[in-house]
Amino acid sequence: MEREGLAQGALAVAPRLLNLVLAHGSTAGRIVEVEAYRGADDAASHAFRGRTRRNGSMYSSPGSLYVYASHGMHACANVVCDQEGSAAAVLIRALEPLAGLEQMRRRRPSARSDDELCAGPGRLCAALGIGVALDGADLLAGEGVRLLDDGTRPPEVPLVGQRIGLGTRVGPAAQLPWRFGVPGSGSLSRPFGQRTVTRA
After folding, report:
1. Domains by residue range for the chain, with CATH
2. From CA 161, how far away is CA 153, in angstroms rounded?
3. pLDDT band at 197 (very low <50, low <70, confident <90, very high)
């Protein structure tokens, strides 16, 4: 995807990221689940209350990587997807492992199957070796962490559901259907349309 295509805002970009490939080093996975987060009009967004040192990368150029630590532990990777200076990002929630599986298994020894290696935002970052030190990286630069198009088109009719793990603190924003997935994928962080334990 070209940088211009990533500057259309979170809701437009999120379903188009499905089936693209996220790669880091020798590891790579196909994006099968994402969540859209807008800026000041989205109470669930890190940018809801404005720019801070932590969320600064959300305001970067489209195609930048925004990485934060969830609960101070698990890194979570996001694709910045609006014009520079306007905050919006898409959280990558799950990947289907494609390359470097042996390395992923070493990094994620608790995974019970290959489908679980990258089934969750924290899990995929651990499997691919993505940490907060990579916050702000350019996903389109062709090195380091890379967002790639191998010709696999996004699903014509993606799965759609509510974003995960927001609780009541964000009010109605918790009910917005801004989570998208690839139908039939075995690597989703949790099924669509069901309430189950969230995977980190």
Report:
1. 4-181 (3.10.300.10)
2. 20
3. very low
